[in-house]
Design a protein that fits this description.
six-stranded mixed β-sheet, 29% strand, Immunoglobulin-like, C8orf32 fold, 2 domains
């Protein structure tokens, strides 16, 4: 009976559907951020000491985790070359379990060596460091393995887990965050990394998170069962950019990236904003393979934080359609207009 009760408590604690940053609007994270900034450049040779320095002046769990998370995002570079190397080898050995396991073991050693010596890593290293520093601060934090989708992801070949992030327990609720995507932007052409902290990935809305994060372990959706998408649905989802997490609380429609419609028909768009905006701040960008342009949607409605609009497509053709809010690129869809 006691074991059953413990399992029930765990199940209930994971049902954190509404667990997101707004739960901590009463807190000011400036002190936590300033501590992380003051310790910029600290070595990774003594992780217990680093964790103590980051958290000992802070009183709440959320602030202590914030200092750890912010320090990792501001001090660890995303090594895109290392990511490509790992992805290439894992695909090479995916049908040979022994070679696959041997490569993972070898790469793990290289990964953590690069992290500790050069402060460069991939998503696994980010998630590991956030968890380890949290453990030393007596914060309950887990590494979540799964699939991640960005604009450069080839969904046709996405058959192996390719991303890691974190879940953290604060005030008896679990929250999601992605330190890798929050840290900055690696250039896939030059492989150079630029630090550019994105606060939108800190304690993000699980429903928005689900558009481009697919955990292997079902419990880390933090969603009601009926809201958990299938893997096929996940692969068909729109492309979300980092700016989506800055501007949106949730993404409702369109639920798929690709659409086929007839001329003079409309496509509906629906979002929940983090803050209210003016209609003129909403633009759609179009690319038909020959030219690019921007225009406002055909019709638009903004009520409080609800943004709904429709756009009518009159000319046949194939279009990449990009949503911009105040010049921030939010999401991408494709629309084929044919008779």
């Amino acid at each position: 009976m006691r074991r059953l009760f413990s399992i029930l408590l765990l199940f209930l604690s994971l049902k954190s559907v509404d667990a997101q940053i707004v739960d901590f609007n009463h807190l000011n994270f400036k002190k936590a951020d300033s501590i992380a900034l003051a310790l910029k450049g600290e070595s990774l040779t003594n992780l217990p000491e680093l964790s103590y320095k980051l958290t000992n002046q802070l009183t709440t769990e959320a602030e202590r985790f914030r200092a750890i998370y912010r320090w990792v995002c501001d001090n660890i570079a995303n090594d895109y070359t290392l990511y490509l190397k790992n992805d290439r080898q894992r695909r090479r050995f995916k049908d040979d379990s022994l070679k696959f396991s041997a490569w993972n073991t070898k790469f793990r050693s290289e990964l953590f060596g690069t992290l500790l010596k050069k402060k460069r890593t991939i998503c696994t290293g980010y998630a590991y460091l956030v968890k380890t520093l949290s453990d030393f601060a007596d914060l309950e934090c887990e590494i979540v393995q799964g699939f991640g989708r960005v604009s450069t992801t080839n969904v046709e070949t996405l058959d192996l887990p390719n991303h890691s992030w974190n879940a953290v327990k604060l005030k008896n609720k679990w929250y999601l965050c992605d330190p890798t995507w929050a840290s900055g932007i690696p250039n896939p052409t030059t492989n150079r990394f630029r630090f550019q902290y994105n606060d939108g990935f800190f304690l993000a809305n699980p429903k928005l998170f689900a558009v481009n994060h697919f955990p292997i372990d079902r419990r880390w959706w933090l969603l009601d069962d009926e809201d958990i998408p299938s893997f096929e649905t996940f692969l068909k989802s729109p492309v979300l950019y980092g700016n989506a997490y800055k501007n949106l609380e949730n993404h409702y429609e369109p639920q798929q990236m690709h659409h086929t419609i007839k001329p003079y028909k409309t496509l509906a768009f629906n979002y929940l904003l983090k803050k209210t905006i003016q209609p003129e701040q909403v633009k759609l960008g179009f690319d038909n393979g020959f030219s690019e342009w921007k225009e406002q949607p055909t019709s638009i409605s903004i009520k409080d934080k609800s943004l709904e609009f429709e756009h009518q497509f009159n000319q046949t053709g194939f279009y990449d359609v990009h949503l911009y809010i105040d010049n921030d690129l939010i999401s991408t869809y494709t629309v084929e207009v044919k008779k």
